[in-house]
Amino acid sequence: MASILLTPPAAEPLSLAETKAFLRIETAEDDPLIAALISAARLHVEAQTGLALMTQSWRMVLDCWPASGRIAVRPAPLQALAAARAFDFDGEVQAIYIQAFVADASTSTLFFKPGALPLPTRIAAGIELDFTAGFGDAANDVPEPLRQAIRLLVAHWHENRAVVAGAEVAPVPPNAAALVAPYRMLPL
């Protein structure tokens, strides 16, 4: 099971102005660097948690339908299922009505009745599910602890630019890691 990003978020959880205020920077000299650090920090938090912070479109690829009748959608939180497809051996696509699924946003799980969906006959990657995930479109939709973790990462990486740019990698500050830890989606 793989998830492929189709459409990245339209905005970041922190604005450039908000981040510069946190860093106490008044010049525009480092704006491109700070913008890149915000994006990198968001990606780091998303990778650590298994979450999509801002609304994004994704495609999940499966080889076959799980016998349990449930699919854990990652990244979470699931907003909506947009499309479902099964492929036959020749690569022909069969669209599946999304009403065949029940989406549980609280657990980011799709439920379906086993045996009720068309079986893919393609050897691998026979099923594609397109979905939107994320806390929302506005920065304030993202939980504040995760936004604070991004602030701390940006500040840490901004102050340790020589280490980040060099062969060594600056370790994640413990306070940022502590803010992220409760949001990690652990595999069951």
How is the secondary structure organized here?
Blueprint: E1 2-7, H1 16-23, H2 31-49, E2 56-62, E3 70-72, E4 78-87, E5 93-96, E6 102-104, E7 109-111, E8 127-133, H3 144-159, H4 161-165, H5 174-180
Antiparallel strand pairs: 1-2, 2-8, 3-7, 4-5, 4-8, 6-7
Helix pairs in contact: 2-3, 3-5
Describe the structure.
With 188 residues, the protein is of the alpha+beta class. The chain has 2 domains: 13-53 and 138-183, Hypothetical protein yqbg (Orthogonal Bundle), CATH 1.10.3230.30; 56-133, no CATH class. It is 29% helix and 23% strand. It has 5 helices and 8 strands; from the N terminus they run βααβββββββααα. The strands form 2 sheets. The protein has a 5-stranded antiparallel β-sheet with strand order 1-2-8-4-5, with no helix packed on it. Strand 6 and strand 7 (109-111) form a beta hairpin. The chain is elongated, with a radius of gyration of 20 Å.
